[in-house]
C-alpha cells in the first residue's frame, strides 16, 4: 500500500519536468505528508500536451452511486487492474502521473513500526503511475479523483513493505500520458518495480503518522 508521500518542489519545477505551462492549480503548496482524500498535484495528457491540476486522492469511478468509495480506492494493484472491465477501461483511457519526491512506508522493528522515507538517490522528482476518473453528483458538480497503482516491491522496499507504488521510468512517462495509447497489454509492461539501485530509504519521525503534520521537519532523518 502507498498511503503517504511527499512532493516538496516548486510548481515551476513540475512544469519543467512535465514540459507544460498548462496549469489549473490555483493554490499550490509543497506537501510533506500527502494523504488520502486530499487534493494532490497530478499530470494528465491532453490533445494539446500535458496539464497539471489537482485530483482528490481516492478513486470515485464515474459509475459510482456516491463519492464514499474514495477512501477505499487509494491504491489499485497492477496485477489485477485489467481483471475488471471498468478499471481496464480507465487504464486504457484515463491515466495520470502523480509527481513525488519521496514516499513513506512503515517497517516492523521488533514490535514497533518505524516510518521510512523512500527517495531517489539523486533527490529528484519521480512519477507515480495512476488512473483517474470524473464523477458527477446529482447537481452536476464534477469531482476528479485518482488512485495510485502498486506492484511488488523491489529489493530495497521489500525490506520495509510488501508493496510499492509503480514508479515510471523517465523514458516511459510520455507513453503513459499519451492519450492515443490504449493498448492495455503494452501499458501493463510499464508497471514494474523500479530499479532499487537508484533509490534509498531512511528513517523519519513518527510524527508523519498524523495527517495533520505537514511540515519540512518530517523530511529529516530520525
From TrEMBL:
Its EC number is 3.4.-.-. It comes from the Bacteria. GO terms for biological process: protein-DNA covalent cross-linking repair; proteolysis. SUPFAM superfamilies: BB1717-like. It is an enzyme of class 3 (hydrolase). Keywords: Covalent protein-DNA linkage, DNA damage, DNA-binding, Hydrolase, Lyase, Protease. GO terms for molecular function: lyase activity; peptidase activity; single-stranded DNA binding. Belongs to the SOS response-associated peptidase family. This is Abasic site processing protein.
Amino acid at each position: 500500500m502507498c498511503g503517504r508521500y511527499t512532493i516538496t518542489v516548486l510548481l515551476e519545477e513540475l512544469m519543467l519536468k512535465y514540459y507544460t505551462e498548462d496549469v489549473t492549480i490555483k493554490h499550490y503548496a509543497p506537501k510533506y505528508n500527502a494523504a488520502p482524500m486530499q487534493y494532490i498535484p497530478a499530470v494528465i495528457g491532453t490533445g494539446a500536451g500535458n496539464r497539471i491540476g489537482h485530483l482528490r486522492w481516492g478513486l470515485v469511478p464515474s459509475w459510482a452511486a456516491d463519492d464514499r468509495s474514495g477512501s477505499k480506492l487509494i491504491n489499485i494493484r497492477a496485477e489485477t487492474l485489467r481483471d475488471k472491465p471498468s478499471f481496464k477501461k480507465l487504464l486504457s483511457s484515463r491515466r495520470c502521473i502523480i509527481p513525488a519526491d519521496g514516499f513513506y512506508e512503515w517497517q516492523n522493528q521488533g514490535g514497533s513500526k518505524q516510518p521510512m522515507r523512500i527517495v531517489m538517490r539523486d533527490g529528484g522528482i519521480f512519477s507515480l503511475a495512476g488512473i483517474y476518473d470524473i464523477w458527477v453528483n446529482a447537481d452536476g458538480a464534477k469531482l476528479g479523483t485518482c488512485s495510485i497503482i502498486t506492484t511488488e516491491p523491489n529489493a530495497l522496499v521489500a525490506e520495509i513493505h510488501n508493496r510499492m507504488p509503480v514508479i515510471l521510468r523517465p523514458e516511459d512517462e510520455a507513453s503513459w500520458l499519451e492519450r492515443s495509447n490504449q493498448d492495455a497489454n503494452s501499458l501493463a509492461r510499464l508497471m514494474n518495480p523500479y530499479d532499487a539501485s537508484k533509490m534509498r530509504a531512511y528513517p523519519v519521525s513518527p510524527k508523519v503518522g498524523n495527517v495533520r503534520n505537514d511540515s519540512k521537519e518530517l523530511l529529516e532523518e530520525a
